[in-house]
Here is the input.
Amino acid sequence: MEMRKPSARDFPGLCARYNVKLSPYTTWNVGGVSKILFTPFKRADLIAVMKWIGDNGMNFYLLGGGSNVLITDDVLETPVVLTTGMTGISARLESGVVFLDCLAGTSLKEVLSLSVKNGWSGLEFAAGIPGTVGGATAGNAGAVRGSIGSVVESVTAVERDGSVVKWNASEITWDYRSCSLFEKTDRVAHSVTFRLHRSELGKVAYSVKAAMEDRKTQPSVSRTAGCVFRNPSGDSAGRLLDAAGCKGMRVGGARVSASHANFIENIGECTARDILSLALACKKMVQDAFGTLLRFEIKTIGIEDVWNAPI
Ligand SMILES: Cc1cc2nc3c(=O)[nH]c(=O)nc-3n(C[C@H](O)[C@H](O)[C@H](O)COP(=O)(O)OP(=O)(O)OC[C@H]3O[C@@H](n4cnc5c(N)ncnc54)[C@H](O)[C@@H]3O)c2cc1C
Here is the structure.
């Protein structure tokens, strides 16, 4: 379908940009050019963007902190909606429960910092997880000590037709790195309310420190996008990749981390093709060695068919 360029009249805010390089918006620092990038700041902007997308019968991609996505090196015709302009947190206390209303583009780190400063407990497990509240909710981000779904009170999203819908926790199903509301890209989380409880400053800070200790084996300074593969039931993808001999393997500017085999690092001049080839080679090595078919945790923009193709 021929893409109609949106006109200024379509949007109340100046939130459409053209031919924008996406690599700076990802932690891998990889990705081609987006023909049209929407950067809504207010809810009204997001509603207008979604309405325009819906009215034109278009698909779209979503980008939060870009810490769990691999974007094609090629030009992307499908519009991308970048959520990081929609930020803000407000807290309210009701009968000893702390409710944090967070706009979806707010960084998880900021929400955690506020919680630590005030001695609010519940999100400590998320220490060290980059990205936004929206991305964490869509992927039920988590670590050994917990995951986002357990502290979500409600989610408000904008649908493809521009309507705004709120879901309470009881209407949402959470699974390992998935949330029933966002299995398909047809709505955008606009805000998420977390339910935390009051605790002691020292206790919360201690739990955060413990959660950070768990990450000691992960590369912390290189450009990565977190774990490439999901853990298979009852096992660890990192352990399997390590045992299959993947650590240190390299394709172009992509290398399997020497400290954690489930992380691929951009070691310079890296392309999405390099990452893709390396990831597929690792997947095959694990299957050949152990018969285990690893599944990707990383989401893709513009390369779904290659990423999910059987090896
Ligand atoms: C060093 C490092 C460590 C990490 N450790 C962990 C970890 O311990 N646990 C873990 O779970 N993850 C981890 N990650 C991965 C990543 O940080 C999380 O998955 C994070 O929650 C992704 O958020 P994001 O905003 O960056 O999402 P993005 O990468 O921008 O997007 C990821 C997905 O979320 C969707 N999405 C984004 N915003 C919205 C929205 N507003 N509404 C609906 N859908 C949306 C996108 O469509 C996409 O499919 C790590 C990453 C790095 C780089």
